[in-house]
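S.,

As promised, the pyridoxal-5'-phosphate run. Input:
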Amino acid sequence: MTDTLPIDPPARLLMGPGPISAYPSVLRAMSAPLVGQYDPFMTHTMNETQELYRQVWATENEATLLVDGTSRAGIEAAIVSLIRPGDRVLVPVFGRFGHLLAEIAERALAEVHTIETEWGQVFTPAAIEEAIVRVKPTLLALVQGDTSTTMLQPLEEIGAICQRHGVLFYSDATASLGGNAFEADAWGLDAATAGLQKCLGGPSGSAPITLSERAVEVIRSRKRIEAGIREAGDEDAPDFVRSNYFDLGMILDYWGPRRLNHHTEATSMLYGARECARLLLIEGRGAVIARHELAGRAMLAGVEALGLAVFGDVAHKMSNVVAVYIPEGVPGDAARTAMLEDFGIEIGTSFGPLHGKVWRIGTMGYNARKDTVLTTLAALEAVLRRHGVAVPAGGGVEAASDVFAGRA
Ligand SMILES: *Cc1c(COP(=O)(O)O)cnc(C)c1O
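Predicted complex:
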């Protein structure tokens, strides 16, 4: 006996830096019936999903698949599989997730070198090249969009720099993919990973990844270890990947034509990830990016019209999230609670040097829409006024409406 009721979450509009409200059809896809691991339908669906994500990433990479787990599962798989203990890794850090990449590389026993820029800024290609020349890394690990600062690191020129210096180029595009341009092949990426819970409009729990031929060669050159088999290698510093779950060599064999058993693919997440990509491609890559750009511009105009100061270098902001300084005298957490309890709207708090200083408001995936932007601005205006801030009546909604109507 139990008196626990069936799950019944409150209605929420998730307008933070992620996770965001999923597209309804993604949730529907995830409730489709399960099939067995080697059912022809399953392998066909895996192949379809690979093909969809090749288009999402703008790549011809055969090695395009899903790592099961949240975005950091993809990050960890890429890093532990691509670097050997003692390899030098360069991580330019412009927010919290750069620190995460450095930490994961450190755990993988890399010799990690970081360069840092102030939060709210990005790196110039020259600064990254200078560090590459100095450090001579095997791998450059660079976040594209860091939600902790809202900044979007330009990647267009980085691939050519890495190629010139024989460095593998990996990017964490979790926060940006779908809402901002990403061109895996044209930009010379060797590895890129993402998650569903930002612009792709799904729940967290699946990490799309794409790997260049060069990256696959590196992964394939690692010594193999699996239950009962251990390839001969240097016994002091064995070369095998220090994770079974995140060993991309094994995961590639599972997704590839050999279909060697590894983990049991997370079937419902596969359905969800497939639907996220399908929706994106039906709408069109360019159209989805333009929708994020429009919603982001409208939200930016709206918060500015409410008199809020925007954090960071706006010229390098991701389209899908904005950080605003919490006005003097307003208790940031109490205001966020009022947004949630009175309006059912979630906006984000902040980490590290920005903790308690800014709110982060996202417009991503399913929620990159006019109604969600206007509703959030109307609620924010009411909450600010209640906390004694003199906000212009209707100003935020009007400014955002003007953007949507093409008047601003
Ligand atoms: C949100 C975000 C993540 C999230 O990782 P999870 O494991 O899914 O929580 C990773 N990287 C970046 C850059 C992000 O913005």
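The first helix runs from residue 24 to 30. The two ends are 60 Å apart (CA to CA).

- D.
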